[in-house]
Amino acid sequence: MIDYSLLAFFIFSSIAIFGSLMVVFKKNPVASAFALVAVFFSFAGLYALMSAHLVAALQILVYTGAIMVLFVFVIMLLNQDLPVEDLKSSSPFFKAVSGLGVLVLVYALVRVAILARGMEPKGSLTEDKIAEQGGNVKLIAESLFSDHVLPFELTSFLLLGAIVATIALAKRKNVAGGLKS
Amino acid sequence: MSQLEQMLMFIKVGIVLAGLLATVPIMLFVERRGSALMQNRLGPNRMGPFGLFQAACDVVKFIFKEDRAPGHVNKFYYTIAPWIAVIPAFMTFAVIPFAGSLTLEGSTTQFQIANLDVGVLYCFSIASLGVYGIIMAGWASNNHYSLLGSLRSSAQMISYELTLGLSLVGLMMVFQSVKLGDIATAQGETLFMIGSVAIPKWGVFIQPVGFLLFLVSVFAETNRLPFDLPEGESELIAGYHLEYGSMRFALFMMAEFINMAVASALITTLFFGGWQLLPLFSVAVAWVQSLNLIPNPDLVQVLFQGISFVIKVASWMWFFVWVRWTLPRFRFDQLMNLGWKVLFPLGLLNVLVTGFLIYKGVL
Questions:
Q1: Which of B160, B242, B260, B283 would bridge B238 by S-S if both were Cys, CB 3.0 to 4.6 A apart?
Q2: Interface with chain B: mutation pick from A41, A51, A69, highest number of B CBs within 10 Å
Q3: pLDDT single digits (tens) A133-150
Q4: Which of residues 150-209 of B touch A (CB under 8 A)?
Q5: Is B302 inside any structural domain?
Q6: What is the spatial distance between Cα B210 and Cα B226, in angstroms, rounded to a whole number?
Q7: Average confidence (pLDDT) per 10 residues, chain A, 181 residues
């Protein structure tokens, strides 16, 4: 008997790793963006394997379905003829810093993996209990709109502010310099 | 999973896949003869009775045509783009219930491939992936018309996805669930009686505004006329699939028809009672059960629920064809204005009013 979830885990995680590498190494920004879409999608698959169906659905809906479409749209519209900067021309200092950063992150990841080995989910939120209380969506919705309603509303205000600011910036540019392509 | 459950799972997946695949030639026929009917011409009527075999001939033609890619395309993305368009279209159907539940040997089966907790959110998220096929095709074709088509497509998808989600919030508030199975079951209740005729609690009666918004946005999401700007043959030749031929083009066409089928199934499930029996069908069920042809009376019930579902979906698909050959195409700025300045505020208002009505205890 094959363990299908393990098989799915390896499929999704290898897509994620391969896609991430493609994001970095592809010269064409649009191709990089498509690789990032694959990475986000496989993340959603990994979330679904952990029974976090709502997170998985939102991951696809928000990141893959909306944000990345906008990314691709903007890159296609603006970056068509920009010359691709050669990575080799960056300074040795920059290379050293990014290399060190990667090493630190990998170390942290390994530490977390060792610490979290064999850990049970904390509190009352085991898989069976979640199903008993009406499922992921209901639980998250209830806690979001009761215990955490203030942060939730504040976040929406923050986003509204960002939207208004963006529109204000875009409008001002138009007035000062005419229509920019 | 017991052996029976596994077998039922295979049967369900088989039914859905076969049904969706069968939609494509049927819709080819309906679209051609239907458009001819509306434009007072005959349409292709030579192959077989009523031209029924024309679709089969087309399939054969598509399969045996030379599959060549133009030299100026980006080969990898050009090849995978049609598949990325067509696979999500199939996947979306996984959470749509197409009949009620059946109890066999003590275990109850839902006629739905996966009764996911996230329900309709799954539909939206997977459906939003289909746009990448279009974007990728337009970009990889390395052609200005194609690129314009895919740019239009991404802008249109983003704009109408908002309304699509928002139009259902009211419905979710009323039925207190995002599971499509729950929503379909809840619509079997009676809303009120007119004389002796029971008006069922269908979504369309509770959320008429939500229904209209949803209907308009699914037209936009499936790229059907009057929203087929990414294709726009009078402006962009063929838009995103300009450089595609033979089977690859056929895959895009398949994606469109299957998206249409899924959209119709969603409209049916959310607003028209899903698999709930059509009026007068309960009489037919009782009659067939009295004949005792099939030993299990529940099986008859499920069978008629499936038939009701198929009839409802088929009439919505006919509606798609009907609209296509009736309305002219929008201009792009009109499309954006409609999406952002009319539908989106209406969607917000619908949520507000629904919330108020639920608070007052009307709904």
A1: B242
A2: A69
A3: 767 777 788 888 888 889
A4: 150-151, 154-155, 157-158, 161, 178
A5: yes
A6: 20
A7: 79 91 83 88 88 84 82 74 60 85 92 80 66 74 85 91 87 55 42
Count how many domains chain A has.
1
* Spans of chain B, pLDDT less than 70: 1, 105-107, 195
Residue A181 has a pLDDT of: 42
* Contact map slice: A 104-143 vs B, CB within 8 A: 135-137
Q: Looking at the domain assignment, is residue B1 inside a domain?
A: no
Domain of A57: which CATH number? 1.20.120.1200
Looking at the complex, report in whole angstroms how far the Cα of residue A77 sits from the nearest Cα belonging to chain B: 8
pLDDT for A103 equals 93
Question: Residue A67's pLDDT is what?
Answer: 83
Structure confidence by residue, pLDDT tens digits, B245-289: 788 888 888 888 898 888 898 898 888 887 777 777 777 777 777
- What one-character DSSP code corresponds to residue B110? E
Residue A11 lies in a domain: yes
Question: What is the pLDDT, as a whole number, of residue A173?
Answer: 57
Residue of A nearest to B80 (CA): A34
Within a domain: A84: no
* Whether B135 contacts chain A with CB within 8 A: yes
- The total domain count for chain B is 1
Q: What is the dihedral of CA B126, B341, B241, B86, to 10 degrees?
A: 10
User: Would residue B32 count as lying in a domain?
Assistant: no
Nearest to B274 by CA among B329, B249, B322, B311: B311
Determine the pLDDT at residue A180: 47
> Closest Cα partner for B108 from B182, B4, B183?
B4
A53 touches chain B (CB under 8 A): yes
User: What are the backbone angles phi and psi of residue B190, rounded to the nearest 5°?
Assistant: -90, 130
pLDDT of the residue at A121: 62
Q: In angstroms, how far apart are the furthest CA atoms of chain A?
A: 68
Q: What is the pLDDT of residue A68?
A: 84
Q: Which domain holds residue A15?
A: 1-79
Collect all residues of chain A within an 8 Å Cβ-Cβ radius of residue B126. 60
CA distances from B178 to A118, B102, B362 (A): 33, 22, 21
* Residue B236 domain boundaries: 71-360
B219 vs B241: CA distance, rounded Å: 19
Rounded Cα–Cα distance for residues B292 and A129 (Å): 44
| Minimal CA separation from A98 to chain B, in Å | 31
* pLDDT value for A89: 63
Whether residue A69 and residue B158 make contact (CB cut-off 8 A), yes or no, is yes
Query: How many residue pairs bridge chain A and chain B with CB atoms within 8 Å of each other?
Result: 74
